[in-house]
């Protein structure tokens, strides 16, 4: 198969075609170099320029203030689950966690393993993680080392429309599946991080945006790779960074800035795409059953079930015949999950919406 499909994968996920084509064109030779980005030293001037450009483009996209570091790390978001409590709290200290789905639940479990005491300030497991707390419903302990939440729960498809109010406690955000989906007031955060493989690039690099004063919390006794301060001091070159992945993040950032026109425009496009699918669900007379409560719906991962559950396999199969791929929900939730990250074109979402209407009519 050479023809491209509409890819609704939850991650690793769709890329903008323009980015793939540029990477292809530069695979044999970066302009003027005669080598690919994968074949040059991370200490070379050429790679340093790509690295600096990637950092600068991330800064521009999210208007990152000067008192924040932009780091490119490895180990995925899962390593952040451990590094965050290891660096930002002392053993025996408490940290507050919003538990709104699979990923924040896993973060709590990892926190406890490194000797920091997680204090769960909300937990919606009983309703299958179908919501995020209403503003003002959750109180954060002012003595906590930090307050942690996941802005978009990829598995359940619930998303915070904006950051929770945590007073003066440093706010830490797992933005793995919604970074770059909208503008963010970075100054309200202590740290925002995201593995790249959903909305920002390929697997292998994790973007960490951290307020510089928090770096002072990293103890010298931490293992080297696990210490944010060492990464910041080495400008993300503490060890060999994931060079190709950083190059790809830069191409995505350039696409967002130059082709899409920035995150306001991306946000409008994402809202339009998501509302098409939620409308198809809401107007289906119960044929499609949404997972998330209306005020908690994600604009990145649209999750729903078919009331006639035995039709699920057929839905997935017939959709694939129309080049609508990777729609099966996560095994823990079931049903359908349409991940409509930045790179999924509106055209693909229109096609899915139309397919949903036709499938409903014929079943
Ligand atoms: C919100 C969120 N956090 C964390 C992770 C874990 O990321 P990684 O596999 O890069 O460790 C994922 C991956 O699916 C995710 O969606």
What does this structure look like?
It is built from nine helices and 14 strands. It has helices at residues 17-25, 45-62, 76-88, 102-113, 228-233, 243-260, 263-282, 312-321, 346-362, and strands at 6-7, 68-73, 94-99, 117-123, 147-150, 152-153, 158-159, 171-174, 191-195, 206-211, 288-290, 301-306, 324-325, 336-339. It is of the alpha/beta class. 45% of the residues are buried. The chain folds into two domains: 18-260, Type I PLP-dependent aspartate aminotransferase-like (Major domain) (Aspartate Aminotransferase, domain 2, 3-Layer(aba) Sandwich), CATH 3.40.640; 262-362, Aspartate Aminotransferase, domain 1, CATH 3.90.1150. Pyridoxal-5'-phosphate binds at residues 11, 76-78, 103, 150, 154, 174, 176-177, 195.
What CATH calls the topology of the largest domain is Aspartate Aminotransferase, domain 2
The radius of gyration is 21 Å
Examine the secondary-structure arrangement and name the CATH architecture of the largest domain.
3-Layer(aba) Sandwich
Shape: globular
Please outline the major beta sheet: 7 strands, mixed
The structure class reads alpha/beta
Count the domains: 2
Primary descriptors:
seven-stranded mixed sheet, Aspartate Aminotransferase, domain 1, alpha/beta, binds pyridoxal-5'-phosphate, Aspartate Aminotransferase, domain 2, 14 strands, 9 helices
């Amino acid at each position: 198969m050479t023809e491209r499909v509409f890819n609704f994968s939850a991650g690793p996920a769709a890329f903008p075609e323009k980015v793939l084509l540029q990477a292809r064109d530069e695979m044999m030779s970066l302009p003027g170099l005669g080598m690919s980005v994968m074949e040059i030293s991370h200490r070379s001037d050429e790679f340093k320029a790509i690295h600096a450009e990637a950092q600068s483009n991330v800064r521009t996209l999210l208007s990152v203030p000067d008192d924040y570091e932009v780091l490119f790390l490895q180990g995925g978001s899962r390593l952040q689950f451990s590094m965050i409590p290891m660096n930002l709290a002392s053993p025996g200290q408490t940290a507050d966690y919003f538990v709104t789905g699979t990923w924040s639940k896993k973060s709590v479990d990892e926190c406890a393993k490194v000797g920091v005491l997680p204090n769960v300030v909300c937990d919606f497991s009983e309703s299958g993680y179908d919501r995020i707390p209403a503003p003002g419903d959750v109180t954060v302990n002012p003595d906590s080392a930090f307050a942690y939440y996941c802005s978009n729960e990829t598995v359940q498809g619930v998303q915070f429309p904006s950051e929770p109010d945590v007073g003066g406690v440093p706010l830490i955000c797992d933005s793995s599946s919604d970074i770059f989906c909208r503008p963010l007031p970075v100054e309200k955060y202590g740290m925002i991080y995201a593995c790249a493989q959903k909305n920002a690039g390929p697997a292998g690099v994790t973007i960490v945006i951290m307020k510089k004063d928090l770096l002072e919390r990293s103890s010298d006794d931490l293992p080297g790779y696990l210490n944010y301060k060492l990464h910041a001091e080495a400008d993300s070159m503490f060890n060999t960074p994931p060079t190709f992945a950083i190059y790809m993040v830069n191409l995505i950032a350039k696409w967002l800035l130059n082709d899409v026109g920035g995150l306001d425009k991306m946000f409008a496009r994402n809202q339009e795409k998501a509302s098409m699918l939620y409308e198809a669900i809401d107007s289906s007379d119960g044929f499609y059953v949404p997972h998330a409560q209306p005020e908690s719906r994600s604009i990145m991962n649209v999750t729903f079930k078919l009331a006639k559950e035995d039709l699920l396999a057929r839905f997935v199969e017939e959709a694939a015949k129309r080049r609508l791929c990777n729609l099966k929900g996560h095994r823990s939730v079931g049903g359908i999950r349409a991940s409509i990250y930045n790179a999924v074109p509106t055209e693909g979402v229109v096609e899915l919406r139309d397919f949903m209407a036709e499938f409903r009519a014929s079943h």
